[in-house]
Amino acid sequence: MVLAVGTFAVMDAMLKQLAGHYPPIQVSFLRCAASLPFVLVPIALTGRWARLRPVNLPLHLLRGGFAVVMLWGFVWAVGRATLTDVYAVFMSAPLVVLALAALFLGERIGPLRWAAVLLGMTGVVVTLAPSGEGMQLAVGAVAFLAAFSYAASIVTVRVLARTDTTSSMVFWFLALVALAAGLASLPGWVGIRAEHWTWIVAVGFTGWVAQLLVTEAFKLAPASVVAPFEYTALIWALCIDFAFWQALPSGQALVGATIVVAAGLLVLVRERVAPAAGA
C-alpha cells in the first residue's frame, strides 16, 4: 500500500507538471485516456470483453460526472499549490465518504464516528482559514470540492459493486471521464508538446500500476490494516515537493493535515475494535 500511494503521488506530481502547460480539463482528459490502453490490453489478451458490459448505466454516468469534477478540481489545485497543501485537504475524503454513506446508503454511523467526521472537517477549516501563510482560500475550496466529488464517486461504487464487475467500473470510469473532459477541453485545446508525450504515457502507466498495487494490498491484508497507510501520501508529497520544487508546506497546512489524519485514524481504530457496534 505504501508503494501504491507513492506511485499515485508520483503520478500526481506529473499531473502538476502538466498543469503548468495545459488547461486542467485537458490534463484530466490526458490522465484517463493514457490509462485506458493499460486497462484494455489484459482484457483483449484474455478475450473477456463481456466483463466490461455496464449494468447500471445511469449510475456509471453519475459517477463519471463526479469524477470529471474531482479530476478537474485536483489538477486545478495542484497547479496553484504544493502537493502537500492539496493533500492536506484531500485526505478528508474518507471522512466525507463516511458521512455520505450514512446519509444516502443508510449505513449505521454512531456518535464516535460522527465526532471523527466533525474533527476532520475542523482540520479542513484550519487548513483553509485565511492567514499570512497557507494556501489561498479559493485553491483550498476547489481542493475540497475535488475531495467531496471523489467521496461521492466512492459512494456510487458501493452501489455499482452490487451489479457491475470491477473491470466494468474501472473501464467506464476512465472512458466517461476521457470523453467528457475531452469534449470540454476542445474549445481551449493546447497542442501537445513532443517532450510531454513521455510524461503522458508515464501518467497512464503509473495510474495503472498504482491501482494494481492497491488491489494486491487489500488482497493480502484486511482493510483496517491496509487503509491507514493511505495517509503516507502526505510523506510522499513532502518529499516530492522538496525534491522537485524545493517547496515546503505551510505550518497551517501541516496542523490541518494532522487533525484530518487523526480523525481518519480514530475511525479506523474504532472499526477494528468494534466494527459492528454502530459507534
Describe it.
The protein has one domain. It is 75% helix and 0% strand. It has helices spanning 2-19, 24-46, 57-78, 83-90, 93-104, 111-128, 137-160, 166-185, 197-220, 223-226, 233-245, 251-273. Helix 2 (24-46) packs antiparallel against helix 8 (166-185). The longest helix is centred in the middle third of the chain and has 24 residues, at 137-160. The model has no long low-confidence stretch (mean pLDDT 87).
Identify the notable features of this structure and list them briefly.
279 residues; mainly alpha; 12 helices; 75% helix; globular
Number of domain modules: 1
Please report the total strand number as a whole number: 0
Average pLDDT value?
Answer: 87
Q: What distance lies between the first and last C-alpha atoms, to the nearest angstrom?
A: 27 Å
Number of helices in the DSSP assignment:
12
Please state roughly what percent of the residues sit in beta strands, choosing from under 5%, 5-15%, 15-25%, 25-35%, 35-45% or over 45%.
Answer: under 5%
Q: Characterize the largest beta sheet: strand count, sense, and whether it forms a barrel.
A: none
Query: What's the SSE pattern?
Result: HHHHHHHHHHHH
User: Per the principal axes of the C-alpha atoms, what is the gross shape?
Assistant: globular
Point out poorly predicted stretches: none
* Rg (C-alpha, Å): 18 Å
Helix content: over 70%
Category from helices, strands and their pairing: mainly alpha
